[in-house]
Design goal:
The chain is an alpha/beta fold and about 625 residues long. Helices cover about 60% and strands about 10% of the residues. Helix 1 (about 30-45) crosses helix 3.
């Protein structure tokens, strides 16, 4: 299959997808994009958002009024006045304003809490569902630990981003502008100018230094994800590590990642010290100039003692939150990066999507037809070549051959793990280059069930009609009952027990101390290979599909158990359309047709006696396996 090479894409194209699911977005691309992507999730509760903003403004108005009332109290208590009286009304107003500023802020958090928590929940669900919708290729290439870390940080970043941006930065800037206006009106323009210049210098230093040091923070987080993913991968492969005695090797690899993270984290910490020094110096200069001018006004008689107290109160009120601006800005930048990394997963192309006019699969008899199917996982590595065959309704067809012959690929294509007829035009814009096509799954021909092209039916209906018993069985870290009932979660307990009995695992289950409640461990590691395989067979039988795929389904079983289950599987297969993928030929001798595959092609086909009579590839494989069984016996 020749693939035309389109013009190579500009590597700096911002629409280019990342090379890895958890790749770091380019600096400067994340800020507005992250906020814009969060907005629909927040605006769902627009009433709460508007009420929270109203409370925010009310809290800041009350906070700004506090120094003004305090000035009036000080001036009223000035002992130089002969008519000194207790300003009771002002003192009560002072207390009420203090109470209002704090209470409005607390009410704002209460009102907005549901908005943030619901946004976190909805985004997490969207990412979770999207990950399940991505193609098998993505999940074969993913690094589970790194993705888990990205989702965890991204979800937490939503709360941080909204909290800092909406309830810290915005009210602080609003308060400073209000204070500058009050000082300009009540005192003179120089006070307002000093306030704004100090604010501008402070923000300038903060943004410049923080942008410079963000590279260290971003790199540290990337290394943190890599180290976390490496640790998870090592723990998931605990037995392999032990088999080869590579504990020190794994520890050394992990420590290498941690050492690089330590180096970058130290750079981040040193740059933070520089940022704090610049901020402290800016605030010190601004505060000194303001107090100096106010004190000079009191001495000259142009300002009262209350004015001096008011200026000092405003300075404390303004610059105290400003001292955290660097931390807030850095957290906002990092939160935007984390949110963007999570949204990168959410917006990764699915590859396998239902057509707009897709209909549910209408299973009549379950006839499966492959018509001139050619397939390649990569464009330069073809797997199947012009494969055509039919599995009649209610019949059993087996595919046999050496490893790598393309047998399991038939099952993956039928289950639509990989889509058909992927051409350059069907790729998302920005991915139609040579590299993307090299990663794409190129397939020609069609696959039909009861005459319906599987490209034109809904994936959920297609997969509901097909049951698969894979060669490599992976179980959930839950009870045996849960893992079998997973085949049909709404099944009754009697139906689950019947499926276990049919898979010849019921006696084993009831013999366990905890019976059906026995937890199988992560990936089912507490069970033997044969026990896991029988659980997989039981849950597929419980699903009761119209089409059955057995992909080396008994490969992990001993000979005695294999023969017992094989008889049951053959009995079940007679009532439905079955495709058996097998390496052991003794398991397919009863098949209605056997396809012998070699290098992605069907080289022989027929029933067992016919293929033996041909004395070809199948007969040679049969002779070798018989000889091996005799030697083992």
């Amino acid at each position: 299959m020749a693939v035309k090479k389109p013009a190579k894409r500009d590597s700096k194209d911002p629409m280019s997808p990342p090379d890895h699911p958890s790749a770091t977005p380019q600096p400067g691309q994340t800020d507005l994009r992250s906020i814009g992507r969060l907005f629909p999730y927040l605006w769902e509760f627009r009433g709460r958002v508007l009420l929270a903003l109203a409370l925010l403004i009310g809290a800041k108005l009350a906070a700004v009024m506090v120094p003004l009332v305090l000035k009036e109290i000080i001036d009223a208590l000035d002992k130089s006045r002969a008519d000194l009286v207790l300003p009771l009304a002002l003192i009560i107003a002072y207390g009420l304003l203090r109470f209002a500023s704090t209470t409005f802020a607390d009410l704002r958090d209460v009102v907005f809490g549901k908005v943030t928590q619901r946004a976190m929940r909805r985004v997490s669900m969207a990412v979770f569902e999207h990950l399940h919708a991505l193609s098998l290729r993505f999940h074969l290439e993913r690094q589970t630990g790194g993705i888990t870390r990205d989702i965890e940080r991204g979800t937490k970043a939503i709360s941080s981003l909204v909290g800092f941006l909406l309830f810290r930065i915005t009210p602080t800037v609003l308060e400073i502008l209000m204070v500058a206006a009050i000082l300009f009106v009540k005192l003179d323009w120089i006070f307002g100018l000093i306030t704004l210049v100090t604010l501008a210098a402070y923000i300038g230093f903060t943004v410049t230094i923080t942008d410079w040091r963000t590279q260290f923070v971003r790199r540290a987080n990337t290394l943190d994800s890599e180290a976390y993913g490496r640790a998870i991968d090592s723990l998931l492969n605990y037995e392999t590590v032990k088999y080869f005695g590579n504990e020190r090797y794994e520890a050394a690899r992990y420590d290498t990642s941690l050492a690089e993270w330590e180096r970058v984290a130290l750079q981040s910490q040193r740059s933070l010290g520089l940022l704090n020094a610049a901020q402290a110096g800016t605030i010190a200069v601004g505060v000194t100039l303001m107090v100096l001018r106010a004190a000079n006004g009191v001495v000259e008689g142009t300002l009262t003692l209350g004015d001096l107290v008011m200026v000092n109160a405003f300075l404390l009120q303004m610059f105290q939150p400003l001292s955290f601006l660097g931390v807030m800005y850095r957290e906002i930048k990092q939160s935007m990066t984390d949110v963007e990394r999570m949204f990168t997963l959410l917006h990764r192309p699915k590859e396998i999507e239902d057509a707009p006019d897709a209909r549910p699969l209408d299973v009549l008899g379950g006839e499966v037809t492959f018509e001139h199917v050619s397939f390649a996982y990569n464009a330069d590595r073809p797997i199947l070549h012009d494969v055509s065959f039919t599995v009649p309704a209610g019949k059993t067809v087996a595919a046999v051959g050496a490893s790598g012959a393309g047998k399991s690929t038939l099952a993956r294509l039928l289950f639509r793990f990989y889509d058909v007829s992927l051409s350059p035009g069907s790729l998302p814009e920005g991915e139609r280059d040579e590299d993307s096509l090299r990663e794409a799954h190129i397939i020609e021909g069609s696959i039909r069930i009861d005459g319906q092209d599987i490209r034109h039916v809904r994936q959920d209906s297609l997969r509901a009609a097909i049951g698969v018993v894979p060669q490599d069985t992976v179980l959930f870290n839950d009870s045996i009952y849960y893992n079998i009932a997973y085949g049909r979660p709404d099944a009754t307990r009697d139906e689950v027990i019947a499926a276990a009995r049919a898979a010849h695992i019921l006696d084993f289950i009831v013999s366990l101390p905890q019976g059906w409640d026995t937890v199988v461990g992560e990936r089912g590691l507490k069970l033997s290979g044969g026990e896991k395989q029988r659980v997989a067979i039981a849950r597929t039988l419980l699903k009761n599909p119209a089409i059955l795929i057995l992909d080396e389904a008994t490969s992990a079983l001993d000979t005695k158990t294999e023969k017992a289950i094989q008889a049951e599987l053959l009995e079940i297969a007679r009532s439905r359309t079955s495709l058996i993928i097998a390496h052991r030929l003794s398991t397919v001798v009863e098949a209605d047709e056997i396809l012998v595959m070699d290098a992605g092609r069907i080289v022989e086909r027929g029933r067992h006696p016919e293929l033996l009579a041909k004395e070809g590839v199948y007969a040679h494989m049969w002779a070798l396996q018989q000889q091996a069984e005799e030697e083992n016996a």
